[in-house]
Amino acid sequence: MAFSFVLSRFIRKSTAANNDISNILSLKEQLTKVGFNPSEVDYMIMINSNGCALIDLDSKSIKTIEDLLKEQLRFSCKCLELARD
């Protein structure tokens, strides 16, 4: 089962967790637009969640994953800028 499917079915948690998980899904979409394969992003999420479903993580852990994906996106965009110059 694809991790993205597992991810999408956990959007029913609390509002705060929903926002964080929605942010993670948005970051996944943005990372795929800069060249990552969706399964690569799923793998990043899975590794940083220690294989746990996002619904089972506390808000601090979810926020950490969100921050890691934001940093990956920032770094990827910076690399693309340098490659264009």
Structure description:
There is one protein chain. The protein is an all-alpha fold and 85 residues long. 73% of the residues lie in helices and 0% in strands. It starts with a helix and ends with a helix.
Mean pLDDT: 84
Helicity, in percent? over 70%
In DSSP terms, counting alpha (H) and pi (I) runs of 4 or more, how many helices?
Answer: 4
* Shape label: elongated
Structural class, from secondary structure content? Answer: mainly alpha
Strand content: under 5%
As residue ranges, the low-confidence spans are none
Query: Could you give the count of β-strands?
Result: 0
Largest pleated sheet: none
Rg, please? 13 Å
Order of helices and strands: HHHH
Distance between the termini: 40 Å
Task: Please indicate the count of domains.
Answer: 1
Summary, kept brief:
By secondary structure, this protein is mainly alpha-helical.
Secondary-structure topology with pairs:
Elements: H1 3-8, H2 15-33, H3 38-48, H4 59-84
Helix pairs in contact: 2-4
Describe the structure using short key phrases:
single chain, 85 residues, mainly alpha, 4 helices, 73% helix, elongated
